[in-house]
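Weekly structure sync, notes
Attendees: PL (lead), two postdocs, one rotation student
Agenda item 3: pending single-chain targets
PL asked that the sequence for the first pending target be pasted directly into the notes so everyone works from the same version. It is reproduced below exactly as submitted, 475 residues in total.
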Amino acid sequence: MAQPEHRMEWIPPEEAGLTDREQEILRLVAQGLANKEIAYRLGISQNTVKVHLRNIFSKTNLQSRTEAAMYAVRFRLVTLMPSFPAIGEEEAEEGEGEEAPLPAEPPATPEEAPKPPAMVSALSKMEESALTAFPRWQAIILLIAFLLGIAWALGPEPARSEAPGVIFQGDQAGQGIERTEALSRWKLIRQMPTPRARFALARWRDWLIVIGGEAPEGITDRVERLDLRRATWERGAPKPYPVAAAAAGTLGDRIYVPGGINPQGQPVDRVDVYDPEADRWLEGPSLPGPLAAYAMAVAGDRLYIFGGWDGRRLQGTVWMLDPARGRWEPRAPMPTPRAFAAAAALDDAIYVVGGYDGQRELAACERYRFAADRWEPCPPLNVGRGGLALVAMDGYLFAIGGGWRIPLAFNERYQPGADHWTPFETPITGTWRNLSAAPGDDAIWILGGWSGELRAGVWRFTPFPFRLFLPATQR
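Predicted structure, written out during the meeting:
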């Protein structure tokens, strides 16, 4: 019998009576540090850390490190002090009402930041203009050390875009911290041949197919195929037109890759169609207009695209492709225009969660009843997430990654009919965005992304490691 799900009741730190030291430890837990690392950082013993954690859990009714990290984020124990304003706040206020460019990946650190190559310069400008800045995890650690009386120096601000019409200035290079303690449901299987982010990922039979995206050399046309049975990679026919910030949807034995951003930094309307059996590319029906950074899902034998960026503004449009008719048809627009959201089909609906609305990361969840062409709200995420992945599996939705303005401390799952999303652990905290994920037979595969650098890891997450199989009975 399934155990009743634990529901957190939030007790603010002041009501819980958390001491300054306990709040310090909560900050470090939210960064993914193990007890040994916390003890070293604070100059105390591991046993003392354990005692503090027991006190924290007792005072706040938390039951795990994941909930503790979520608590720290919820009550802003890991945000900058008001005396350290976020970079770009003044620029954002002055530019209010102008159109927003699309954010892209920053360099790993401002000190080492090379000037972007020409082929990705537009993407770099977009990243520099993303929202008001949230500090890197490195900066947070430095700030905590400063408050503890340790002399640390904060690094310089990252370069800012001078492109006209930019209102989002100074998105810093977020850093991801890989968890050191074992996570029983997560396993790093192997590495991708090419580290990348903002790529398209499709599941076809027993293959995961990685298409395009941002690689070390810039926007790429590479296609790499992972055989899940043998855990081996092979190269596929390159995509005719390289793009990033596109998605892939499988209809029958064809994989559709609409739009995306080209190496010149502009959204395109071209649709390339991959035949994995023959390892060749075809041209599909063009989009009604240029589009990138959209959310996409397959429901039945239709492909649906939600929102995105058209080169000038964020979109709330919805387009449906009927491959038999070979054309895109408009559907009811999204209630919340945005880019970098994620979508997945579950039962008779498509869920669209997270993303940008042009000003902030969103926790929004909106459910699209595709048969009725109708939208309705669903419970929001616990924290805003941009550049996340969303996977439907075994009657649940799994939201993985994010960490643009808001640092990532946990992932989240949702079962239709519930009134909230439930956190679950993540192997990378801080920043892990613009990754891709796909369901397997009994696991979710998560690939690549950005966490201060392009990532190449292939993770296998098992949501339900213990399954109950009832033997069939004869009548």
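Discussion points:
- The chain has three domains: 13-74, 103-175, 182-461.
- The radius of gyration is 22 Å.
Action: rotation student to compare against the earlier draft before next sync.
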